[in-house]
Write a structure and sequence with these properties.
Layout lengths: L1 E6 L1 H11 L13 E4 L1 H5 L8 H8 L22 E7 L2 H9 L3 H22 L1 E7 L2 E6 L5 E8 L5 E10 L2 E2 L5 E2 L4 H5 L1 H18 L4 E5 L2 E4 L4 H6 L2 H19 L7 H10 L9 H14 L16 H25 L5 H11 L6 H9 L3 E4 L2 E4 H16 L10 H15 L5 H12 L4 E6 L5 H14 L2 E7 L2 H11 L2 E4 H5 L10 E6 L7 H14 L2 E6 L12 H7 L4 E4 L8 H11 L3 H10 L3 E3 L3 H13 L3 H5 L1 E5 L2 H18 L7 E8 L18 E4 L14 E7 L4 E5 L5 E4 L7 E11 L4 E4 L13 E7 L4 E5 L5 E5 L3 E2 L1 E3 L3 E2 L8 E7 L6 H9 L1 E9 L2 H7 L15 H5 L20 H5 L6 H9 L5 H4 L7 H10 L5 H7 L4 H9 L7 H19 L7 H11 L3 H9 L2 H59 L1
Parallel strand pairs: 14-18, 14-19, 15-16, 15-17, 17-18, 20-36, 21-34, 21-35, 22-32, 35-36
Antiparallel strand pairs: 1-3, 2-6, 3-7, 4-5, 6-7, 8-9, 10-11, 12-13, 22-27, 23-24, 23-27, 24-25, 25-26, 28-29, 28-33, 29-30, 30-31
Helix pairs in contact: 4-5, 5-7, 7-13, 12-13, 12-14, 15-21, 15-32, 16-17, 17-18, 23-24, 23-28, 25-27, 37-38, 37-40, 38-40, 39-40
Length: 1090
Amino acid sequence: MLTNANVKAEHAGSYYEKDDYYTQGDPDLQSDTQWQGKGAAVLGLSGPVDQSAFQQLLYGQTPSGESLHSQKIDPKKHRAATDYTFSAPKSVSIAGLIQKDRRVIKAHDQAVSTVLSVLESRYAQTRVRHGPSIRSRVTTGNIIAATFRHETSREQDPQLHTHCVVINSTQLANGRWQSMANEEIVKNRKLLGEFYQNELAVQLRQLGYEIAPQGNGLFECKSYEQPLLNLFSTRSRQIEAYIDKWEAKLQAEGRKPLSPKQKEQATLATRLKKQSVPREVLLAGWESAISSGEVKLPEIPNSLPTLSEKVQVAVDGKLMNAATEGVSHAAERESVFKREKVERFVLEHHLGEHSFDELQSAISQTDLVPAEELYTTEAAIERELDTIAMMKQGQGQVAEIAPLSDASAFVAATVAETDAVLTEGQHLAILETAISQDQLIAWQGVAGAGKTYSLKLLAQLATEQGYEVTGYAPSAQAANVLAEETNIEGSTVARLLHSQDRDDSDKKAIWIVDEAGLLSAKDAHSLLKKAQVNEARVILVGDTRQLSAVEAGNPFRSLQSAGVATCYLEESRRQKTEALQTAVVCLAAGEQLEGLETLDRAGMISKVENDEIRQLAITRDYIRLSPEERQQTLILSGTNRERLALAGTIRSALQREGTLGEDTFKMGSLRAKDRTKPQLKYACAYALNDVIVPVKDYRRYGMQRREQYRVVGLDIAANRLTLAAADGRTFAFDPATCAEKTTYEVQQLRVAPGEQLRWTRNEAVAGARNGQTVTVESVDASGSATLRDPKGERLDVSLRGQQYLDYALVSTTYSSQGKTADRVLAAIDSTLSKEGLYVAVSRAKSSLSLYTTDRAALYKKAQRSAAKKNPSDFLTLFEMVNPDAQQQKSTEPARDLRGADQSEHVGDCAGERIASGFETRVRGSDYLTRGGQPAQRTAASLTRSLSRKADSARHRALVARAPYQQQYQRYSAGYQGSSATDCDRFVARQMVGELSARSEGRSLTTDELKQVALVVGQGATAQRLKRTEGKDASVMYVAELTVDGKRAVEKAQQAEADAVEVLTKEKAIVERWQQVEPAKQRSRSQGMEL
């Protein structure tokens, strides 16, 4: 276990001296205090910690009296150091301290030393200035650490732990000392704690101890029974009693249970002051406690385990499989991710089986590829390239749906007949799609742009031309909406991908995929492959500014960046008030702060004190509405936990009002567990009463597709579950052998007459559609109920057992994408992102209320992007096609994989097959040479379609902005191979040069320079600064490059002008010479004659 606490110089110094807090230990062991870290070595500090040197460091000075900081500090306010405390499991403390197995204490010391080295090499950072207000974090790889091993807790229980006091200073490569930035250390505290537990467990196993994992990266030694551990766990009992008392109070008040952060507060609240007790007194007390209690100490192992060569090979294979599964776990939800995500997975599921160095070696042999400070995989790169290649292959390969004249006539006749009014974007989208000869085309449009109505007209036109048009969406709810509003057959993308391929049908197929921004990279790739096989045209419809898929990738954005033919619908027709219209335009343009300020001025943001009051406020505002208004109201929350709590509060109010009947039955509601497929291979991912539903039959277990099997037993050590079938049969089950399954947790929901429920699975009962809302007309105590759907059709069902039903009263922001309502009430919490805010706000037609507990935090969170990334966001096209081009080959000596240079080694396995495969797929295409230029009509279309709505200068300025990211990609394509900063500099200079050339000699205007800055701001460096240091740092960086570009162009222009001036003078001299020289020659000729 690892905890951390900041230390001030004055408090730490006096505290250590008075209580001798850091100078206790066993005199028979090596010194319990040690200097560690490369920074300490630079200062000549080694061996036991010297008290005076330690005190001097805490006050920001080296032992020689030099400052350890770049500026003067105030010791009373300054963070002198951070205390990172590594605590051994209770069984390890008993073995080392009570049973006096000194090998255990040495193993603890070695584990601490190993993890401290990892902390130093990975997370020792400082901030470096690059200019006015521009700072970035750099990894220095050195710390000054003083470690102090202790043996007791504050309650005088045996507790082996080490305080690692890391001084708040680190040295740059130029020799200068600066304060440390410890954000990354704190952020990865859980991982570092797991590294410690793992290293300790590995060494204890080598000493003969058996390990019993406890979950969450923790363990105890086997044979140390719980009564023995409880005897020496006074501290744990204090914390548990305090938490139980706190939670009982919350439950009595009807409030939410404690969060992990609140439980951490409970740990601090029960803390006693450290006391100093003589070691011999402690040992006597501990021995007395054992002799008087009904507990027994296990024997200390005295021999090392032996492993045959055959067994050792099997262990290596198991480690490689664990590392591969760790990569699969990380890559399932993110195409680009941190290495730590892989490491945590392996540690949580294979604790104590392999050392840190062995783990790093195994991970380096997977298909990880470095992507700036993150990692992607060979498979993700190949998948994105293959998706782009299929799009390219389909360009110009199909016949148009209808000639332009026929399409125009159809649209005109339909509009005249229905009195509809189309925006220019809608009109162009229909016509351009009709005459397109590309197999794949995209519709990019803001929320409420009328995309669905335009699709309805396009579907009618295509049907008249003999096409078979079907609609799909990633979610069932979005598919239902698409089908209802376009009058075409609708289903989910998942059902399409699992369907049989078309036979030789006479009709050509068009597949319309709505909410394409929710497509994962995997599904988009499979979709295009299936479209090729079925010779189907595909129309992807969505908005890259809204939420992304749950699984990895953002293919809708990737395809647009790569040059897919795209129609732009940028005029929202949904919002009916000026404030909402302006806010949506601002949010769509990336101006989150201005959008929020617009909403705030309009009174649409409410500040409340806490979560409970927020629920009451939303409930109050909802209850005030008439029944008709409630039908047109959408209530949103960020998480499922908040959704259920809010639904419970509203239900209670409705019952007091009499609108909702009394609770009659408690129903088991199935909710899919939030776990990846690799996680679901392990028994520790399950809990008792979870439900497993196979996607196909598994004969070895007698399991049938779509049947429910309940977890009634867990054996985590053997990785086995005991499942119960509906007929009462029980059987042992290995979750790793059943990959095709869905796993649910059961939540108990109270059901009353008048309840609004929604189905969460297709065909849960005959005729049920996923996402469909039903009303409970009646329900009795046995669970027999009558449900009524929106069309008035009734269905008699039994709610006994576990049901695919959930409350429909409140939706999550994610599930609301694609919905529209007159009024939106949204609870804003910690999960908010700029995409989530855009979705929540753009659902509303006439009225919006956002409820937040912290207005400042709301503004901050609204600028955080949660959009899924693609490998191409971090790697240039050249690097994607040749991921091994800049990597060192394995002929070099082995590297230290703890440091920052691990990225050089980890991608050595990225093979040439990606390059050759991609070149084969796009042979004949100009994509590699063009760099994936986007459509050129984008900026003009965006400006034209939205300019009519502009009723103020500010509004027009926002609307006129072009898709700057696509412009950046077009310019930067010519600088592949350059560093990110050099690429930004070249882009700025090229843009300034082009604008200057068109300016006919005048100076560039502020707006023109701002356009350059907005494009340069799409680069990787500016975006990284924005994520890590804030928007101001990114703005300053971009401004600096823009000014540099302007100066460079002006210098070049001046040089050109100087050259012209020189040439002019030379030309004048030549012309003068040409005039004078003939006369001189005549004079010379005449002189000769004379």
